[in-house]
Amino acid sequence: MYPLRRNRRLRTNESMRSLVRETIISPNDFIVPLFVVEGKGVKEEIASMPNYYRLSLDILQKEVKELWKLGLKSVLLFVKVDDKLKDNSGKEALNADGLMQRAIKTVKNAVPEMIVMTDVALDPFSIYGHDGIISEGKVLNDDTNAVLAEMSLSHAMAGADIVAPSDMMDGRIFEIRTLLEDEGFCDTGIMAYSAKYASAFYGPFRDALDSAPVDAKDIPKDKKTYQMDYGNREEAIREALMDIDEGADIVMVKPGLCYLDIVRDIKEVVNVPVAVYQVSGEYAMLKAAAEKGWLDHDAVLLEQVTAIKRAGASMIASYFAKDVAKLIN
Ligand SMILES: NCc1[nH]cc(CCC(=O)O)c1CC(=O)O
Ligand SMILES: [Mg+2]
User: Fold this and answer.
1) Of 58, 77, 96, 276, which sits most exposed with the smallest number of CB within 10 A?
2) pLDDT of amino acid 329
3) Which CATH code is given to the segment(s) 26-328?
4) Which residues surround ligand 2, an ion (CB under 5 A)?
């Protein structure tokens, strides 16, 4: 009872506050998403993601060395695929000498201790901009899984530490785990995008990879038949538990800020690490507001990533990873 209890006593100064602070952010918490393109000396800024770039392999090599010096120890690779290589089967995704496979090797050669995670989904390879194979207006679940498993194997063979299926097909974790085990890749981990919502916050990412669903006859206009409905909570828990049963090492919630209730719900029922993806639209919102002088970029950023960790995230995939590492180092 007041005045015996005065909560302000533990807030009197920064030393006192740091003594009782429950959630502390470190570079160890972050996964750095990286966009890779063909070419030499390429560092193209993404229009809707200020200060974020598509990198060719030579620049990627320099970038990961810099990340490592900042204490950032894991990257998540995405590739922007040439239109000529796109089809409806994901054939290029299995190319042992494809851009992703070369990017994996580039990172591992530059910084062998860097954890290399890879995006596993068909959208960057799809002429239709969908995460699966399309037939008669539908995204085929099981046919897609077979390609995702082969794609994961190809990434593992190139040296990936963790494959990260972002597609939301049912049963793909089981198919991927089974193939990896059969082929001797028992140490390759799986980070499952388990509760991935059909979100409007992915817009800038689709600009970065030119991977938005195309507007054409008999092609689904959006990803709502596989990504989750944002009105749903219990379904997210079911998705996470199923992925763990199927062999996921880490489960992910995506996007971040609007979904922290889901992060907490999942955290309370699972016994594997929970990852959160602070997505491209979240990045764009803060950059835009800061550019206008309406928000204090660094202060808002630290508040946001701390909130994500406080909600239950063991790790955060974030385009702000480098900004955060520089701020707290
Ligand atoms: N498999 C696609 C994929 N993997 C990661 C993202 C979004 C990441 C972001 O917005 O930062 C997406 C976009 C989508 O589902 O359309
Ligand atoms: Mg699922």
Assistant:
1) 96
2) 86
3) 3.20.20.70
4) 239
